[in-house]
Design a protein that fits this description.
Strand order of the largest sheet: 8-7-9-10-11
Distance between the termini: 30 Å
Strand content: 15-25%
Order of helices and strands: EHEHEEHEEHEHEHEHEHE
Largest sheet: 5 strands, parallel
Shape: globular
Helix content: 25-40%
Amino acid sequence: VGIMMKTSAEFVISVLAVLKIGAIYVPIDTDYPMDRVRYIIEDSKMTMIMTDQDYKLSAENIEYIGYRDMMLSAKGNESIELSPLSADKCREVCIIYTSGSTGQPRGVVLQNLGLCNLVESFHERYKTLDSDRVLPMTSNAFSSFVGEMFPILCCGGALVLYDRKLLLDNKFLQQVLEEKKISIISTVPSVMRYLNEMQQLPSNLRYLISGGEKLLLEDVNKLVGKLIIINSYGTTETTICNT
C-alpha cells in the first residue's frame, strides 16, 4: 500500500493502519517527480495508494483512497474488529526507496525483526522517556523517518510533525524547539551547524543525532559538554542505523 501524504498525524495513522491489516506500506514523498512516483508504483507492485491530496496518476490497477473520504465513511462502523499486529519476525513491514544517487532507486524491504532491533537499540542507547519529544526533519519517505517514528511511539513519547520546508527557516525552527519542548533531534550536519551557533539552546534538548552526511568537529564544537551528540550512520539495507 502506497502512502503519499504530507508529514502529518494522518500519515502516521495511515502507516499504523496498513500494518494493522497485515500489509506492507511504501511511503512516497509528495514532492517527488511524477516519473519517480510512477517507477515506485510499478517496481513495488502496489495495488493501492492512500493520499491526502489529488495525486492520481495514469497508472493501471491502482486504487486511490482519500484519507478524509475514508474517515468520513468509517464513522458509522465503530464495531470493526482488527486482529493484533503480527509478531512474525520475518514479516515484511515497509519498502523504502533509496535516493538513486548511484543509479535507479532501489526498493529496500525492511522486516519486523530488524525494526524491532532498531527500536530496542534506540531505547537502550538513548534512555528514552515517555516525556521525550522527537522532531523529524527529513522526508517521511526516507529511512531516517522510520528510525524516528517507531522508537518514540513505542516508548510513549511524542512525534512532533511539521512540513520540513518550514523547518528550513532557522528562526521558526528555534521557536518550535522551545515551544514544543523538543528533547531529541535527528538531523544533518548543516542543521547542527546552526544549532552550534545558537547563544542559548532550547531548555529541553538533550540529544542531537547526526546522520546523512559527514559530521565535522567544527559543526558541533560549541555544543560539546552541553548535551549528548551522536554521530550516527547506517544504510537503509541495515535497517537504517548500525553505528
